[in-house]
Amino acid sequence: MTTPKGFREAYRQMIDGGWVGISVPSEFGGQGLPSTMTTVVNEFLMSSNLAFAMYPGLTQGAIAALLHHASDEQKKIYLPKMTTGEWTGTMNLTEPHCGTDLGMLRAKAVPQADGSYKITGTKIFISAGEHDMSENIIHLVLARIEGAPEGTKGITLFIVPKFFVQADGSVGARNGVMCGSIEHKMGIHGNSTCVMNYDGATGWLLGEAKRASTRCSR
Question: Which CATH number is correct for 7-216, 3.30.2290.10, 3.40.1080.10, 2.40.110.20, 3.40.50.2300?
């Protein structure tokens, strides 16, 4: 996926200035400033170019979820490079058959012996789902573990990176998640809104199983 001309250069300037992690705690490489400061900066960005601002904005949303619900190990793996903006983030909720009615969600998660899960399903309207501005994209994906109850109470949130993260923090092999197509919209064409296909992609629990509906409502 190729972003519009100038986006990569502008994004490089943004991460060089540390603008993504303004309000992230310093232990993860952020500036530790109040969230109000991030809101102010984002207002400027959105007023200038909303399509561009969505890339760091969605990353900041994923960072917030990780800060509140990730394990210490997960925070160590993902937060430093998401805070710098080297890696970006998304949120995968919507599915083709039900829109945003999460109670009808079909994406499934099959537990593995090593504690991970295999995620299979299709998500639509995923903003910044695929692009060329960062070396990795950390997808936060809603899915239903096999045997979980129907409705929103059976939904779990997973971390599914585009590329696996190696022990030294570098990116490794490609995970089983791909952009299937680009959504055609009335506006915000500069942001890649994608159909995302998960084909046995490896994911890890973010927080507790079957509690995603509670976390997403906060």
Answer: 2.40.110.20
The whole-model pTM stands at 0.94
The tokens for 172 are 């490794």
Query: In the numeric block, which tokens belong to residue 116?
Result: 């991970």
Residue listed under structure tokens 């232990």: 27
Residue 188 CA, distance from chain mean position = 19
pLDDT 10s per residue in the chain (218 long)? 899 999 999 999 999 999 999 999 999 999 999 999 999 999 999 999 999 999 999 999 999 999 999 999 999 999 999 999 999 999 999 999 988 788 999 999 999 999 999 999 999 999 999 999 999 999 999 999 988 988 888 999 999 999 999 999 999 999 999 999 999 988 899 999 999 999 999 999 999 886 665 444 43
Structure tokens at 141: 């994906």
Question: Which helix (H) or strand (E) element contains residue 69?
Answer: helix 50-69
